[in-house]
Amino acid sequence: MVSVTSILILKVLCVVTSLPPSYGNPESEVKFPGSDADFKEFLNTVFGQIQVNVNKKVQVKKNVYAKISNILNKVAKLDPCYNFRVEFKGSTYEGLKIGNPDEFDFGLVNDNWASKISLEVDGNTPAGFAYAAQIVRTCLDKFKIAGTKRLSATKVRDHLRDLVEKAMLERRSREEAVGRGTCGHL
């Protein structure tokens, strides 16, 4: 796989090799060692290595989304408070990924929490962070830090992790019951 840096260097090479010598100074001219045919073959080889099957890329994104959504539906059945939707983020989703997708960044959004939780910052809050504080009573009351309106991010996250684990184990058990393997499947 060709790195972004390599591609940028190639682009600079293409531009530099096509520039005329500066004011007749032969030392300012950059020459590719070899014939133009060699350079063209080299560029075509590199170009072939970075080509991506767009249809395959879209299909992979759809499959990942379907698997995550399936798990989140099971999570919501286990605890309705954790009713999330998936929101993809990052280079693959934005179409900026060079090469085939090898990772997917995504966020879990709970629209029901939006108007019931505020973000607070105080003198003890690390830079770039905030505390989640309840505005009204919610299903998250059990995760409040005693004596405050703040929610324990650790407890909220740990409960989500437990729910995801249960959802995945349930799926695995069902697949084993019908004789399907789980290798490569969420």
From TrEMBL:
Q: Which organism is it from?
A: Acropora cervicornis
- This protein's name: Secreted protein
What are the UniProt keywords, alphabetically?
Signal
Any signal peptide, and if so, which residues? 1-24
Q: Which lineage?
A: Eukaryota, Metazoa, Cnidaria, Anthozoa, Hexacorallia
